[in-house]
Amino acid sequence: MSEAVGEVLAFGIGVALSPAAVIAAVLLVIGPDGRASAGLFVVTWALSLAVVGATALLLADGAGASDAGGPADWVVVVQVVLALLLVVLAVSQWRGRLRDGVASEMPLWMRKVDGLTARQAVGMAIFLASGKPKNLLLTVGAAVAIAELGASAGAQAGALAVFVLLGTLAPAAPLAMSLLLRNRSAAVLGGLREWMVRENATIVAVLCLVFAAKLLGDALSA
Question: Residue ranges of the alpha helices (H) in 63-184?
Fold first, then answer.
């Protein structure tokens, strides 16, 4: 199981570092329904990662991702394709980043988060966890990395659980800060939101390039 967990550590951290999810969580915490909406958002985020990851893992397992203790040929192809898609996404994000001297402004979807009900927060969490290209590609990458090891079902489930836990840390941080800091959390969360809005595209672009390099490295080593 330790080997399977080791494969997903980086992917989990990559999913966790999702500025859009952190911004949404901050806006929900300071919104009308406060911690209830933010808590529902975090739970739905984790469940969405689990569902997408489990589905991809079952498909990869069923397709024979492991071949005599190593990755099957199609796994290498998938890793290369995922890497190329991440490079394309990185270029797109980098070209759309905020330039120096330009005031940061929240995208339209972020402005819509203000005033979301608890039920609407569920849809937002599903969209950000499984609809955002970076998170979807990294979740699929984690599932393929687990499947190619040919580990037992229990080890695979444990590795997927670790991936979901790691991937939920950052989106859950605003809620945790609100509970710990209480009245003092507003200023901290406001500063975090502003920084995330300003650096959103840059963070995503860098992460995409890092994981593209990892996936290509895995493919070449196979």
Answer: 73-95, 108-113, 118-126, 133-147, 153-181
Cα–Cα distance measured from residue 183 to residue 190, given in angstroms and rounded to the nearest whole number: 12
Write the single-letter amino acid at 131: G
Residue 49 to residue 11: CA distance in whole angstroms: 12
Q: Please tell me the distance from the alpha carbon of residue 199 to that of residue 25, in angstroms, as a whole number.
A: 16
Q: What helix, strand, coil percent values describe the chain, rounded to 5?
A: 80, 0, 15
- The answer to whether 5 and 159 have CB atoms below 8 angstroms apart is yes
Cα(206)–Cα(215) distance, integer angstroms: 14
List beta partners, residue 67: 70
pLDDT digits (tens, 9 = 90+) for 29-41: 877 667 788 899 9
Q: What is the mean pLDDT of residues 163-188?
A: 84
pTM (two decimals): 0.83
Give how far the C-alpha of residue 69 lies from the chain's centroid of Cα atoms, to the nearest Å.
28
pLDDT, one tens digit per residue, over 74-107 is: 888 888 999 999 999 999 888 877 665 454 555 6
Nearest CA-CA partner of 192 in 10, 9, 30: 30
Indicate the range of 107-111, 124-128, 165-169 predicted with least confidence: 107-111
